[in-house]
Amino acid sequence: MRTAVRRTLATAAAVALGGAATMVGPQPASAGTPDCPRYNICLYLERNYEGDRMDYHESDMYECLYGYVPQGLASSVHNNTRFAFRLWDSNAGLNWAVVGTAAPYKAYGSFGAGDNRVSIIASPGCTPFD
């Protein structure tokens, strides 16, 4: 009986320690997320800059060009450029939906209700139907 109680307590302690360890992870930042190169806007498939990353250089985003998320829908972004970019959901049926705007030199670890909805980034002043 004492052995069973010890095992149960040891298991509970291991779960508690493991649970605390899994809560430690990347924190949202206002700028300088280390893995997004300067002059790029980077979209990540997962929250907090996890998962696959797609990089778009600011020079490629002029003249109403768009960056598509080919591998799925993004859940976090780091805009390491001097421009604001609109984030769009193209999977909202026939209607395009704005998920938000990525301000210059800002990082967003989550889009909240917009997680897994960002499929397109648009150049400043452009819309997907231009």
TrEMBL record:
Origin organism lineage: Bacteria, Bacillati, Actinomycetota, Actinomycetes, Micromonosporales
The keyword Signal is annotated on this UniProt entry: yes
Protein name, as recorded: Peptidase inhibitor family I36
Keywords noted in UniProt: Signal
Stretch forming the signal peptide: 1-31
